[in-house]
Prior knowledge:
Helices cover 78% and strands 0% of the residues. The protein is mainly alpha-helical. α4 packs antiparallel against α5 (76-89) and α11 (189-200) runs antiparallel to α12 (204-217).
Amino acid sequence: MLQDSDSWLDLLQEGLALARAGEFDDALDHFERARRLAPTRPETACALGREHMRRGQLEKALELLEEAWNQDRSLVTAGTSLARCLGLDLEKFERAHSVLDDVDAQFPHESTSKLIRAEVLLAEGRHEEAAVVSEALLNTESERVSQSATLLMARVENERGLRAIRTGGLERAIFAFKRAGDLDPAWAAPKSNLGATFEKLGKLRRAEAAYRSALDADPSYARGWHNLFLLYQRQNDTRAGDCIERAFRADTASVVITADFAMALLGDGDPDSARAVLACHAHGLGDLSDSWASLVVPLMAAGSRELASFCLGNAKERSTDPELIRRTEALLDSVTPGDAQA
Length: 342
């Protein structure tokens, strides 16, 4: 019996080392073998549950993590992992907070549970509450927790900026987006949002610089390329074409980017390439009727009944849902070519 115990523990420790090294398939094999040798040990359930959670296998992860936590409430990793699975992956916020309450009651100085609490609050949309928790962790002794809290504060500031825009507070939005960018320099979104705010204020050079800064942080950031395309398009700048192509290559699933790229190609006198782009988008989403139908209205609103009809025809060929086609045809008839695109 003692030999079996040593064996499962060795396998568990080796599996954890493999996971830290990024060798996840081998780690999973070790965890499964440890679980078979020691099926009643909460440590094996926790390690295996965490690996299933990392792979997005949430039902199995939840079962294992609940087992581990209910079996041993001193196993803090099981509690924090369970809360993360419930709150961030499954959006079962109330249950996640309940688990975190139990963890905090037993481990009042455990910073990881407080970090997860802030993440769950942020996911719930309770941004100011998340800010309070995150700010308290900024100077914690754990460098990992402090860095994570800093990144969470960047998300809070970005949300503050978005809220300020919705209420017309553009100057407040600028401050918030700058703050978010300073807190997380590698995150492109607040820099792009800053550019959009400058554009609303008519500060086009500063808008361009902010979009470029976003793309320096993340050259594959599709929204940044798309925002830059729109800016250049309004100025009749020939660089617009390169930007929309880069946006599409970064995100072929976006309906708005796809429609804009197709319209740009049509405007350049290349309808065959425009249709090819639309087909690429639809094929990437499984070549389904709804992927074709979703393109109809933005293309019609942008001014091309020809491309909109092309997409509707493809939707009809693939449709098993007459109601979808009926709604799409009605939308097509309701939109006047050249209407402002939503």
